[in-house]
Amino acid sequence: MDKHTIKNKFTLINIGGTTYKCYTKTLTAFSTSKLANLDKENDEYDDEKNEYFFDRNPILFAYILDSFRKGAIHLPKDICGTTFRQELEFWEIPPRYVAPCCWEALYGSEGDIEIVHLLLENFRQGQNWSRIHDRKSGLRTRLWLFLDEPKSSRSAFVWNLFISFLILAALLADSLSTIDIFQENHTEEDMMVFAKFADSVHFSNATMEKISAMKPNAYLLFISVMLHAILTLELVIGFVVCPNKNSYFKCISRVIACFGYVAYWISCCIYLNLRYVTSIYVVTIQVIFGYLSILKLFRLFYLSRSIPAFRLITLTFRSCKQEMKILVFLLSICVFVYGYFLFAAEFLHNPNINNIFKAIYWALITLTTVGYGNYVPVTTVGHVIAGSCAVCGVIVIALPVGIIASKFYKYYNYCSYIKTNSITEVNMPQSVNGDQASKISLDENSILELNDL
Asked: What is the pLDDT of residues 282-292, one digit of tens each?
């Protein structure tokens, strides 16, 4: 600000048609700002009216000018922080003058912009994004979309529901096979094979009886085989028609489910021909692959990716990596500290806690508020340690979990807002650093996914 201006007692500033009159000395509160360095030689000065004109928002300028009077920047909670930061940038006021009580109001919107950007981009991702709207796609691509993308057509959605029903029916059939009324006795030939296997692995008679009794009814076994045959055939056809084989195996749940189905068929083929088996190694393979066949349940996780609400949960955990690290780090420290404390207090008086690993296991169960009760302290000092461990577990787990739940709630609210207001485009404002504004567009498929929430 030049000397002539400083000698004047008052300064007139016209902001978008609203004239503000203030002491000239007030404008020198922030020495590096544009208002502190006003010059009548600049284009903003009007000689006829003896005032400076700026085509800015007069409402926001009222808070800017008030900040000069107070010596610190304050802004109400109902003003967008990004917009106010742009005003600070225009008037060349450093953000360090922002009062601590207004940091959340000023910088909170920046995190909201990042959340919206991340949320909308997440719903635009996927290898089928461009294929759904490609009218020139061939039969192979359309068949792949029919099998892999429920939102590509109504028939694909119906097929997805049918596959979901088959997965649940196969899971129910496997569950019913563990009930006595749906089981039958093995033949003598099968029992001889199981007896040789039990002797080779040193199983007890009770364990042998459980294994030999786990033979499902022939009708239930037939239903289970037919259901798994359809599900396996669907996976095979999907792999054949997949336009990009590399992307097919990028889905971890799909790969694990495929391995589970392979293990199921190996186990099933040996089981159906058990009477012809003479080698103990073949029976061992049947038992091992029988256990590994449980991996086919990962098909449920692969299926859930088509549910938008589940995608929100996945996105929440991906964006909360830092909070998860804090949770694991704090929990690990508490587990080891309380485990060692309890072992030191109990090992002379409690025969159940006779090594440090049992004490660490007790600490983990107590900190997570599960409390099985198989290992409990018996001394007074042990009871004090147990009480403090339980209280510490509630605090340690509640803090990061609360942050994660809050972020999911915010994601869900943004999706609901987009759905309610039928938003198809989001304008990302210009950043404080001067980056060019960007626009994110949603197509019809993304809007449908958001509407399913």
From this structure: 777 877 888 88
DSSP state of 395: H
Enter the CATH code of domain 3-98: 3.30.710.10
Q: 351, 451 in Cβ contact below 8 A?
A: no
- List, in sequence order, every residue forming a beta bridge with 98; answer none if it has no partner: 73
Domain 316-421 bears CATH identifier 1.10.287.70: yes
How far apart CA 95 and CA 432 sit, in angstroms, is 11
- Count of CB atoms within 10 A of residue 367's CB? 24
In eight-state DSSP terms, residue 435 is P
DSSP string, 171-214: HHHHHHTTSGGGB-PPPHHHHHHHHHHHHHHT--HHHHHHHHH-
Sequence spans of domains, the chain:
3-98, 150-305, 316-421
Tens of pLDDT, residue by residue over 189-224, are: 666 666 666 666 555 555 555 565 567 788 888 999
Tell me the C-alpha to C-alpha distance, in Å, between residue 412 and each of 98, 252, 402, 406, 453.
31, 26, 15, 10, 8
- 426 bridge partner residues: 440
Pairing of strands 10-15, 51-54: parallel
Alpha carbon distance 96, 89 (integer Å): 12
Note the pTM of the prediction, 2 decimals.
0.59
- Average pLDDT of every residue of the chain: 77
Residue type at position 327: L
Roughly what angle, to the nearest 10 degrees, separates helices 356-367 and 380-420? 40
Q: Which two tokens stand for residue 377?
A: 């302290």
Distances, alpha carbon 130 to alpha carbons 92, 135, 138, in Å: 44, 10, 13
Higher pLDDT, residue 333 or 282: 333
Residue carrying structure tokens 């099998």: 147
- For residue 223, the tally of other CB atoms under 10 A from its CB is 18
Buried b (16+ CB within 10 A) or exposed e, 312-331: beebbeebbeebeeebeebb
* Closest listed residue to residue 160, CA positions, set 335, 302, 320, 372: 302
Q: Pull the structure tokens for residue 139.
A: 């039969």
The position carrying tokens 């964006």 is 319
| Total residue count of the chain as it appears in this document | 453
